[in-house]
Every structure is written in structure tokens, then in C-alpha cells.
């Protein structure tokens, strides 16, 4: 049966690739370009470290395995996939106690989490502040260059027979007599499909509305700072123990909990702010000042480093901070793969894999019940 | 440093900014004239110590060494964040000028290959000629003063277009007799130094190992394709293909922009030099490349109007004539990226080749320069696309089979941080750092 994927970002690309690899005929539509939405506004995190035990961690662990396979099949170089590992830093006794509790529970779920004393942190990150109480090392954490990864997966999908149409907006759905989706009404004309996958990310709610199956996907704005290129001075993805609390927070106001990492290009990326301000694309100086201050707190040498640019993105979040993955029972033929908040790059590999399993009638590697689309119905 | 707000902050102390500041001050406004450089004058009045053309009345208003890296709009005016502290003003006049536009050709990144403006700056600012056998190449009338200043050190001037194109614009030329005299004077100077001036000829490659020692020049046919080539020995090259307006601040402010006749993205100004954003004025190259004379006139109009006065009608007439000439000039000296070979470097910061740019479109599915930038990294390095942005936009558009659009250039020109600032600078004043 034919699959039509809406969205040429990281999640759409992973769905397209896995479906094409499973033998399905795939078409990808995006109103913009390849990977120009939220995929281009992130850092390329593939993290298990920042997740509490639960369905999202299970999904993340599956995704880490799937990313390794993608790296072998497509080439780690073409994805700029790096097994760099994560280091979480606690800077107070309560923070360290909380972190030790978390790593213990994560280990019970299969996460490779190593508690590290303050004395051992410099061996992992020589330029880290000495003002630390301890930390944890997560060798499974990885990074990709997200735009390159999405483009490379779409390229691989095309090699498997998929077609990709950018600049093509979906304006409505086509339905059969039984109410099932039979295709979409796109800018370039009607397109028939047996399955339509909503991988529209932050705009997944709008697409779901078009199909008459509302989803509460909303934007959560974040800034990333990029420094001038430096020699490899930061080896891991380094963040403070507060970050986990920030990711899971329901606070509507501004939160910043810093994540610092080097990239292959030599630049250092500094994230991550979280704001619920709709699709406001304006630069916010207070936010980037706060991120700069926190980054210097972790790595004092950064005070003398030049900021090259900043960028921003809108994470697609759902009220329970879990993505929406799987067929929508309200509209047969409609399948969702969106709402991954700030973890879409990391979770995309598992998401695409699970969608392909579902659409080919295989038993998914993971129970999709926690991600079911109808869970929000009041 | 935070001072009491000025009535008008003029950003850029080149011809447009100096004229704007003088006009505003002459009408009683309190003016702050900011420039990133250590001394005013901009790229045009780049004089060595002791040759300062700045009127004494303005000197107290000048804030040198103030590079504006971000502008914030507030309810009652603007906050300019500079490398030397904050400056507040009720009205802003953006006169940030332009810099040399570059087009890649094999060897353009070799030591000894300069921009025409860079060569001029070294000579005027530091008294240092870039070489003893200099090839001056590119397009546009700016090549003439560069060659004339280098005098006997110039091996030849290679103009890709032809000044004969001005014949298509007799009215524009007739309204600006001074321009004709100026051009003739430069050509006479070249002739006096026995410097050959070739038209419809371009430098298509520079050769050398650790430094340029020769260039290949080619005659161009009507479609600008090279038809016959020869090699010329030299020890330096000065290349300029027009100018790129510096639009970071207008874009940060949300000003409307458009594609100008020379292919540059420029900010849109009304008859009083007002931008589309209330409280913002534009003067000089940021609203269309037209040279120092036009910049001065636009600055005078902007400064007077921003200070609440009605600019003199004679200024408006002068501006119309100079703009007509600029339009004729852009039509005469058209610029295209050409078709550089696949292994030519486009972005020297990130060492991105023409091939990688084309593959981002053909293989990876990018549809615009911003997408290509994210995939292949042209414009991601230290210069943030200031050098390679225009060429990248041209190459991407060509690979996509369409002309360059204003949106293409906007995607490469938007820089929320307009000048280098350290993280320590940025973090100043944040509590609990």
C-alpha cells in the first residue's frame, strides 16, 4: 500500500526511510524545504540521559539502537553521527543526590549510567569548572548533524524508490465513503495514499485538524548559541542536573538549563531555553544572556570566546510531554509521528522504525499505547 | 556604559552617517554618531592620522569603537548594544554602508588576492600598496580610482563589463556631468601611467602555491562566457564585483527589504529616507549602492527629517539625479556569478566547494541558500556569509534553475548578532552567573 508522509524533517525522513526499506511505496511532501523546520533549529541530540524511566526512555533506548544501525547502513560520516557520550554535572549536594537517584533508576531500565566523583570529572572534561559536587557519564548519548541526517535519510529513501516533493503544502484530506483517509489535497493537486503519516512536527496539530482528528501539539521556543570554531575543548554533551527538571517542567515562563557541547565543525553549541510564547521568531536578548552566563558557569574559559550567531526553533510539545506515534482510531488511514518536543532527532529513528512495523503489519518492538493519539480526548 | 538617551543615534560614520549627523545636529538634535572603527570616515574617507576630514562641530558626538551587535526596539525608542556598552536613542539612522562583493574563481583564496576595497584601504589607510605588479579586475567604476591610486604598480585593469553601456542611458548621464568628468579623469590618469584598460575581460583564475604569481584573464562573449584566455604575471590581484550593503541592523529591526538593480538586497526607504519601521531611517548604501555623493545627499535628507525639519528641495532633486545615474551604472555593470568549476572554493571559512553547494541541491534536496547553508556549511564560519553569501545565493539559484530572489538573500543576511561579541560580554549583568 502507498504511504504519504507529511513533513520532510527528521521524523518524516526517518518514517520515509524505514517505510521504503520495508518495501512500501513512499511519497514525502513538505510545504518548505528539506529539514527547514524544527530540525534546523536544534542541536542533534540523541539522549537517554535526560529521560526519567518510562515510555519515553524505552523509546529512547530503542532509538539509540536504531541510530547505530542507521549509522552502519548509511554511513556515520554522512549523518555526522558521533558516539560522544553525555556528562551530567551536579553543582550542589541536593542536585547530586537527585542525580544519583536518577542514574540508579535508569540503570534498572538498561541505561549505561556511570556515577562520577567530582575528582574524576576533569578526566572526562578537562576544561569543566572545578566548582562541582559530582556527576554522571552516559556513554550511550550520541549526536548527529540533524539537517544532514534528515537529508541523508531522504536521499536513501529516494534510492529505495521514494519520491520527495518540497514546496508542496497539504491543504486538506481526501476521504472514502467509510470515512477512511484515501489521500491528501496538496498544492500541486490531489494525491492518493493508503496511509497518510503526519510527521509535521510543531505543525502536527494543524495537519491533524485538517483530518478532523485534533491533537494538542504546541510550540515551545528555544535558542541555541554558536561560538567561533575552537579546537576540541569540550568532548561530551555536557549539561547540569537541572536540565532534566527543565525538560519535564510544565512552567509556561522562561526556563534555561544549559547544555554545552562541541561539534565536528569546531563550534561550541550552547542551549537550551524553553519558552511558551507561540511562534514568536524574535530574538530575545535576556534569554541569550542567561544562556551565556550559565555556559560560562560550566566552562569558565567560554567567557573569552566569541559568539558567532544564534538560532531558534520551536519544539513540538504535547501536554504530557510524550510524542504521538501510531494509527489514529478516529480517522482510519491516518497515522501520527509527531509531538516529540525537544527529542525529535533522537527519537526519530525508533519512531520511523515503529511506524514501518505498524504499516507492514509487523508487531512493533515497543508497545505504542502510551503514545496513542486518542489519549488526549477529554 | 549607559548614557542618557540621544534624540538620534546615527550608526556608521561614513559619508552617509556623517552627513546625517551634521544635518541633524544643525537642526538642534542631540546626536550620537557610532562607528565600529577607531576613527570616523568609513570606507570612503579612510585617511591617515592628521588628514581627518571630520567637521569640528561633530567630533564631540562621535562614539568611535562602538560596534553595534544588536538593536532592541523599546516602547520609547531603541537600545543599541555595542561592544563598548549600551546607547539609547529615540530615533535611529542606519548608515552602515557596504563592503566588496566577491565572486569565486579558482585561486581567489590565495594570498595576494585582495578585494578592490581592501587594496584601496591598505593604500589610503596605511600607505601600503598591495604589490608592485597589480592586476585590478572585476566590474564597476570603483575599479578606476583603485587603479589610479596604485598608479605605475598596476599591470592592467580588466573590466568584465563595458562603460559603453552608459550610452543606453543618455539622460542619466546628462543629469550627472560631474560623473562623466570624474570617469574621464581616471581614464586619463590610467593612460598617463600607461596602464592598459581592457573591457569585457575577467580574471578567471589565479595561480600560485603560497602566493599568487599569475592570473588567467579571458575575453567574455555576449553571454559572459570566456572565449579566449591568456596568462599574465603579477604579484597581487585586486578584485571587486560591486558591493554588498550591510543589512544586519535593518533586518534585526524588521525593516522591509527588496532586490535592487545590482542584485543586492537593500532596505526599502521612502522619500524622507524612512524605513518601514517607525523611528528608523536609512541612508547610503544600505538602501541602494550608489556611491559617496548619493550617500551624502541621503544622509542630509535623513538627518534633517529625523530632526523634525523639512529637507531642502534641492537635495531631493540631487538625489533623484544621482539615483538615476546609479541605476544606469548597475545596468551597465551587471554582475553574475558565472559558472565556476566544481572544485572552486565558495566559502573560504568552511572550505566549501562549488560541488558541495550543487550537491546539496541535486542530491540532498535543498531548495534555497539557507537550506544549502545548513547542509554544506557555506556561510557558517567566522564571516557568517558576508564574503560568500551573494555567490552562494547565485550558485543555488542556478542549480535550482531559477533567478535569485530577495528571500534567498534575506536568508543569508539575517544575523541576530551583527558584530563579534564575547560570551563574557554578553553575560555581563546576569545574576547568579
UniProtKB/TrEMBL annotation, chain B:
What is a single molecular function from GO for this protein? Answer: oxidoreductase activity
Record domain FAD/NAD(P)-binding: where: 7-299
Q: Which domain of life is it from?
A: Bacteria
Q: Which UniProt keywords apply?
A: Oxidoreductase
List residues of the BFD-like [2Fe-2S]-binding domain.
345-396
PANTHER family associated with the record: ANAEROBIC GLYCEROL-3-PHOSPHATE DEHYDROGENASE SUBUNIT B
| UniProt protein name | Thioredoxin reductase
Amino acid at each position: 500500500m502507498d504511504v504519504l508522509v507529511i513533513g520532510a524533517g527528521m521524523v518524516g525522513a526517518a518514517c520515509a526511510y524505514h517505510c521504503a526499506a520495508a518495501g512500501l511505496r513512499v511519497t514525502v511532501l513538505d510545504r518548505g524545504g528539506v529539514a527547514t523546520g524544527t530540525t534546523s533549529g536544534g542541536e542533534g541530540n540523541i539522549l537517554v540521559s535526560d529521560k526519567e524511566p518510562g515510555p519515553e526512555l524505552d523509546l529512547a533506548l530503542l532509538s539509540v539502537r536504531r541510530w547505530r544501525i542507521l549509522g552502519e547502513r548509511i554511513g556515520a560520516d554522512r549523518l555526522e553521527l558521533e558516539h560522544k557520550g553525555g556528562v551530567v554535572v551536579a553543582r550542589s549536594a541536593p542536585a547530586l543526590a537527585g542525580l544519583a537517584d536518577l542514574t540508579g533508576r535508569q540503570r534498572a531500565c538498561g541505561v549505561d549510567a556511570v556515577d562520577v566523583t567530582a575528582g574524576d570529572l576533569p578526566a572526562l572534561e578537562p576544561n569543566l569548572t572545578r566548582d562541582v559536587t559530582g556527576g554522571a557519564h552516559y556513554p550511550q548519548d550520541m549526536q548527529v548533524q540533524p539537517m544532514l541526517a534528515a537529508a541523508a535519510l531522504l536521499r536513501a529513501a529516494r534510492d529505495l524508490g521514494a519520491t520527495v516533493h518540497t514546496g508542496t503544502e497539504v491543504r486538506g484530506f481526501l476521504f472514502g465513503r467509510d470515512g477512511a483517509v484515501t489521500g491528501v489535497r496538496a498544492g500541486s493537486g490531489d494525491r492518493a495514499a493508503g496511509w497518510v503519516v503526519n510527521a509535521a512536527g510543531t505543525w502536527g496539530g494543524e495537519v491533524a485538524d485538517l483530518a478532523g482528528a485534533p491533537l494538542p501539539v504546541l510550540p515551545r521556543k528555544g535558542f541555541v548559541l554558536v561560538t567561533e570554531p575552537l579546537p576540541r575543548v569540550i568532548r561530551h554533551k555536557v549539561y547540569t542536573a537541572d536540565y532534566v527538571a527543565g525538560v519535564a517542567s510544565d512552567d509556561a515562563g522562561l526556563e534555561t538549563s544549559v547544555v554545552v557541547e562541541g561539534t565536528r565543525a569546531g563550534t561550541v553549541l550552547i542551549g537550551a531555553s524553553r519558552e511558551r510564547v507561540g511562534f514568536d521568531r524574535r530574538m530575545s536578548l535576556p534569554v541569550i544572556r542567561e544562556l551565556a552566563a550559565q555556559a560560562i558557569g560550566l566552562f569558565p574559559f567560554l567567557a573569552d570566546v566569541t559568539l558567532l550567531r544564534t538560532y531558534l526553533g520551536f519544539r513540538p510539545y504535547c501536554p504530557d510531554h510524550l510524542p504521538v506515534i501510531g494509527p489514529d482510531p478516529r480517522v482510519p488511514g491516518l497515522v501520527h509521528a509527531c509531538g516529540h518536543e525537544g527529542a525529535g532527532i533522537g527519537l526519530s529513528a525508533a519512531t520511523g522504525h515503529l511506524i514501518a512495523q505498524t504499516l507492514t503489519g509487523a508487531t512493533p518492538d515497543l508497545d505504542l499505547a502510551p503514545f496513542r493519539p486518542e489519549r488526549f480526548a477529554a | 556604559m549607559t548614557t542618557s538617551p540621544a534624540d538620534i543615534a546615527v550608526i556608521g560614520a561614513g559619508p552617509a552617517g556623517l552627513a546625517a549627523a551634521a544635518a541633524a545636529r544643525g537642526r538642534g538634535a542631540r546626536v550620537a554618531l557610532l562607528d565600529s572603527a577607531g576613527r570616523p570616515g568609513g570606507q570612503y574617507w579612510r585617511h591617515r592620522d592628521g588628514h581627518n576630514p571630520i567637521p569640528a562641530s561633530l567630533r564631540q558626538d562621535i562614539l568611535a569603537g562602538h560596534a553595534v551587535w544588536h538593536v532592541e526596539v523599546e516602547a520609547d525608542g531603541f537600545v543599541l548594544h555595542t561592544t563598548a556598552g549600551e546607547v539609547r536613542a529615540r530615533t535611529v539612522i542606519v548608515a552602515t554602508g557596504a563592503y566588496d562583493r566577491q565572486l569565486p574563481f579558482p585561486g581567489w583564496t590565495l594570498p595576494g588576492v585582495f578585494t578592490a576595497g581592501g587594496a584601496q584601504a591598505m593604500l589610503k589607510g596605511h600607505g601600503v600598496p598591495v604589490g608592485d605588479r597589480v592586476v585590478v579586475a572585476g566590474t564597476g567604476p570603483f575599479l578606476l580610482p583603485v587603479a589610479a591610486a596604485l598608479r605605475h604598480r598596476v599591470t592592467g585593469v580588466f573590466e568584465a563589463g563595458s562603460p559603453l553601456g552608459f550610452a543606453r542611458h543618455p539622460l542619466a548621464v546628462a543629469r550627472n556631468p560631474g560623473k562623466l568628468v570624474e570617469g574621464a579623469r581616471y581614464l586619463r590618469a590610467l593612460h598617463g601611467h600607461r596602464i592598459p584598460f581592457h573591457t569585457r575581460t575577467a580574471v578567471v583564475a589565479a595561480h600560485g602555491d603560497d602566493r599568487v604569481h599569475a592570473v588567467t584573464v579571458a575575453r567574455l562573449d555576449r553571454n559572459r562566457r570566456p572565449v579566449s584566455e591568456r596568462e599574465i604575471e603579477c604579484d597581487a590581484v585586486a578584485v571587486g564585483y560591486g558591493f554588498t550593503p550591510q543589512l544586519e541592523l535593518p533586518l534585526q529591526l524588521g525593516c522591509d527589504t527588496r532586490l535592487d538593480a545590482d542584485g543586492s538586497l537593500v532596505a526599502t526607504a521612502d522619500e524622507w529616507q524612512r524605513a518601514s519601521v517607525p523611528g528608523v531611517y536609512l541612508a547610503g548604501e544600505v538602501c541602494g549602492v550608489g556611491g559617496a555623493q548619493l550617500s551624502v545627499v541621503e544622509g542630509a535628507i535623513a538627518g534633517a527629517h529625523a530632526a523634525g525639519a523639512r529637507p531642502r528641495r534641492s537635495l531631493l532633486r540631487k538625489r533623484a539625479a544621482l539615483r538615476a545615474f546609479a541605476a544606469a551604472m548597475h545596468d551597465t555593470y551587471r554582475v553574475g556569478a558565472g559558472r565556476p568549476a566544481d572544485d572552486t572554493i565558495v566559502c573560504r571559512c568552511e572550505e566549501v566547494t562549488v560541488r558541495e553547494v550543487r550537491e546539496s541541491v541535486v542530491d540532498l534536496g535543498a531548495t534555497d541558500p539557507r537550506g544549502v547553508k545548513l547542509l554544506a556549511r557555506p556561510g557558517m564560519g567566522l564571516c557568517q556569509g558576508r564574503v560568500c553569501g551573494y555567490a552562494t545565493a547565485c550558485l543555488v539559484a542556478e542549480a535550482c534553475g531559477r533567478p535569485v530572489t530577495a528571500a534567498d538573500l534575506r536568508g543569508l543576511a539575517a544575523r541576530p548578532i551583527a558584530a563579534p561579541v564575547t560570551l563574557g560580554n554578553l553575560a555581563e549583568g546576569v545574576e547568579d552567573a
